[in-house]
Amino acid sequence: MPAAWTLRLTGYDGAAQGELRNASERTFSFELNRMATGSFKLPLDDPLAGTLLQGDCLIQLWQGTTVRLNAEVISVEEVADASGIPTLAVTFADAAYWRLTHRLLGVTGPGLTFGTALAPVNKWNIANLILLNLNVDGDTGVRNGSFGGTGTTYVGPWRFKPFMEAMLELSRTLDGFDFEFVHTEPYIDDAGGLLPPDSVAIAVLNTYAKLGTTRPNAIFEYGTGSRNIKAYKRQVSREGLMTRGYSLPPGFPETSELIVSAESQSAIAARGIHESVVATDLTAHMARAELLRSHLAVRKQPRQLITFTPAVGIGLQFNTDYAVGDVVTARAKVNGSTRFNAAFRVYGVSVTLDSEGLASYELNLVPEA
Fold it and tell me: Which of 161, 218, 257, 325 is the most exposed place for a label (fewest CB within 10 A)?
């Protein structure tokens, strides 16, 4: 029996406010290296409506006995007319990710710098240090977890730079890393005396050379085999195609920093020259070159995205048999013709709950390199 999803409300201190039993139109999504989001509606006369409207609380998303998400209220819309029951329309987002988008690095002195061209440092260690420093300046509720990865770089000076912007710059390169926020029940934690004694932790940040694992038994099939997929869509998009790219230094052309360029001869031979500028405020030449190479690796060919809708109530279970970041097998046969049969990485999972709480899922898959 699949674990049921529930929505609960707590204070920032973790004090339980109750379950959102009357919530309807409940949807939420999880994406690799992106912010988890969701929404629902609640009758205006629900006992918890006032707390949501005020906003200073956490929405918890549980799957069975596991906290999958502590979320901040992002927006609340109160709607009343003669045609129906007055409601609140609520949107929410991963509290850890969202809070860190609102915290700035390098707000004092000369800014924040790590490494040099001759002595680059581990990217994951930069992520570790900036979170530590940020919490000392004022608790985020996010704790340092396990940090891994292989890439090195030098960055800075960062001045008034949002934490998550820095994280994405560090991670979105060929030698970057994946990251995730693992949520827990809120608990008192002063980080060994570094923080005030009443500080509350809600999640830990982990980084990985690559998040997820290969799941040989996670096989999704349409029109063949187990037939555990009721529908699929495959999109092949040439939007964003780039076979030759450039990275301009901040302040260009009023700067002595070099322009970085890269191209794919094989892609140019196959589909011609498609040029683009990769925008970034990275100043380090090595970092800009690595970012450009990572863009070229993805954009030199059309992007393929497959969306699967698994059959309800049968087959594989999210966060048990597969999770975001995992590599699974997907195959489809239509009118006797095999459309695809390959390994794909799970880049996103969307969940919709019906009025009875039964979950339906939609998976976004991309071919595994």
Answer: 257
